[in-house]
Automatic annotation (TrEMBL):
Family (UniProt): Belongs to the plant self-incompatibility (S1) protein family.
Example of a GO cellular component annotation carried by this entry: extracellular region
Compartmental location: Secreted
Listed name of the protein: S-protein homolog
Coiled-coil boundaries: none
GO biological process: rejection of self pollen
Keywords per UniProt: Secreted, Self-incompatibility, Signal
Signal sequence region: 1-23
Keyword Signal: yes
Length: 142
């Protein structure tokens, strides 16, 4: 009984701290940067993102259109989002998927950071803050 009330006390404290620390949100963005001058022409992409409890999209994006959504990292720091992007006009020939966000443990602070992803002709690029843009995933052919 004593241990249980101690546990509940600590648990309550953790929840209080976390709701305070996590006053803000983080954001994921996905942008269509497929070159409209490519021989395939301008193409839409279809994008959706998922976590254990949420599904955002699908959204259809034209060249330079952006999908954006905010989220809160859970107190355990286990929040993770995966995104799937399919290339139009068929949406079944080329697709890609990537881990768009993965929390790194307890008490991650959501501070308005944008985790920006771009679909380009040669793959998926990640960009955040002052970091250089990095290619982190390839397209897969069906
Ligand atoms: C991330 O994307 C948003 C929405 O397009 C943009 O306003 C912001 O400048 C981008 N951040 C970086 C670091 O590129
Ligand atoms: C993408 O594919 C190329 C060629 O197969 C490979 O060299 C590269 O490592 C891959 N990049 C990623 C981020 O998986």
């Amino acid at each position: 009984m004593k241990n249980l009330s101690k546990f509940l006390f600590v648990f309550g404290l953790l929840c209080m701290i976390s709701s305070d620390v996590q006053g803000d949100r983080s954001f994921i963005t996905v942008k269509n940067e497929l070159n409209p001058k490519d021989k395939a022409g301008p193409r839409l992409i279809m994008a959706y993102c998922k976590s254990k409890n949420n599904m955002i999209g699908p959204r259809y994006l034209k060249f330079e259109e952006i999908m954006i959504f905010g989220f809160k990292t859970n107190v355990w720091g286990t929040t993770e989002f995966w995104c799937v992007v399919k290339e139009g006009p068929h949406y079944n020939k080329r697709y890609g998927s990537f881990t768009a966000y993965k929390a790194k443990g307890l008490f991650v602070k959501d501070d308005g950071t944008k985790w920006n992803w771009s679909a380009k002709d040669d793959g998926f690029y990640f960009h955040k803050g002052n970091m250089p843009s990095l290619k982190l995933a390839n397209w897969t052919m069906n």
